[in-house]
Backbone:
């Protein structure tokens, strides 16, 4: 089930990547729900999203906490 949550999180983040505020909000939710190793995988995924949409760069601060 945890893996399903990770895949769902990736889907949601991709869908809201047009709005950096909404993306940051969903990222906060994801960080509170995912397991530590899933968060590490999520960081890699987010970096690829940032390459497509540089406005999301401001959300990287959430990953460093």
Residues:
């Amino acid at each position: 089930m945890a893996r399903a949550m990770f895949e769902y999180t990736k889907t949601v983040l991709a869908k809201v990547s047009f709005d950096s505020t909404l993306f940051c909000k969903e990222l906060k939710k994801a960080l509170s729900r995912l397991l530590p190793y899933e968060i590490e995988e999520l960081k890699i995924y987010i970096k690829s999203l940032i390459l497509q949409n540089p406005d999301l760069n401001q959300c990287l601060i959430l990953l460093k906490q």
User: Anything to note?
Assistant: Residues 2-63 form one domain.
